[in-house]
Amino acid sequence: MKHRHLRSVIIFGSVVLLALMLVQGFWLNRVVNITERQFSHDVNLSLNAVAVDLAIESGTPIEVNELKSNFYFVPMHARINHSQLDDMIQREFAKRGLDLPYEIGVYAADRDTLVYGNYVRATLKKPELIADQSGSEELSNFAVYFPSRVSYLAGEMKIWLFSTVTLLLMVGFFAFAIVSLLKEKRYADMKNDFISNMTHELKTPVTNIKIAHEILSQSGGEKKPYLDIIDKANRNLEEKIDQVLMAASIEQGAQLKMEKLDLHEILKECAENFQVRIAKRQGELKLELEADHSEVYGDRALLIRAFENLIDNAEKYSIDQPKISLKSRSDKGQIELKVSDTGMGIPTALQDKVFDRFFRVSQGDRHNVKGFGLGLNFVRSVFKSHNGGISLMSELEQGTEVRVTLPLA
């Protein structure tokens, strides 16, 4: 991935996640406030109903004081039956679904000391009032305390808390993915730099061998067959080095030398370079260039190398006499080119992998054709950099057809 694309992905992903977190935080805050207000409202209604019932006989005014978010005090200044108070509060809480434990306290009104206390476990059961006369003849007030109010409110908002935790996990995963991606990008850059430096260093001895071959070739004689072997091997090595350099330059986003080109002329030039080699194997290379328009914008060197790779593969993977055809047609603003052969073909299960770097189709436990597995990966990179596409269809023992599309100039 190019640096600017990676930066764009990080910025866009960060903005989206930040927006989601702000929206989630806004709604979570609203839900917390609404849940707290609803809880306070239900408690006030319940205690007010209890106070009304208790005040019928005493005639004292009703007032529920929320001293803290989990502590409510009701100044009754009335005689309170302790058991009856327990049952009344439990009944009113059950009506409103307040299913959480609470503590009841009854205080002497004149000296403000606790004269009765009870802890009631969470229940939604509505008890019947017990005719119990236990209580105090002195005037009293009562209070209710909720020791587990926070956990109760959290339970009421569990779906919102779950979505918030999920979002935080997503943010954490995104951060981990970005760190891993940056680390992989750094390693990839180091690898590409190493490949580029190594191939550049190899160019020097290759050039020296070429110069030495030209000098020695002037003497001719019995050494000529060996010199021809050196020349062939050296040219093959030079092609491989150039291919690796070109692939690395494309991956690093090097600027292409775009110009208006006639694709038919390029195909004819590539075909001519292979005619002798194919003729030696008693094969045939046919050109069926039927496209009405064949001009494209592209990098001449890269396109020539890409098409040479396709023809080279078609020739190498043909077992007997290679029969290769190059066809073209134009339609809807693009030109389509087909490179077909009648070679050994590619298994269906492997056809999606042939464009991967370093992947090579093998038979049994050995590779039948020498190579690095860079050819088709390089070809795909070239056509992708030209806003084109490439696809492959193949059948074992029947041959392979590679289709390439490029936008017309």
Automatic annotation (TrEMBL):
Q: Which residues form the Histidine kinase domain?
A: 197-409
SUPFAM superfamilies (alphabetical): ATPase domain of HSP90 chaperone/DNA topoisomerase II/histidine kinase, Homodimeric domain of signal transducing histidine kinase
What's one GO MF term for it?
kinase activity
Keyword Phosphoprotein part of the UniProt annotation: yes
A Pfam family per the record: HisKA
**Which CDD domains does the UniProt record give?**
HATPase, HisKA
Name the catalysed reactions.
ATP + protein L-histidine = ADP + protein N-phospho-L-histidine
Q: Which UniProt keywords apply?
A: Kinase, Membrane, Phosphoprotein, Transferase, Transmembrane, Transmembrane helix, Two-component regulatory system
As recorded in UniProt, its EC number(s) are 2.7.13.3
What's the protein here called?
histidine kinase
Species of the source:
Reichenbachiella ulvae
Taxonomy-wise, where does this protein's organism fall, top ranks first?
A: Bacteria, Pseudomonadati, Bacteroidota, Cytophagia, Cytophagales
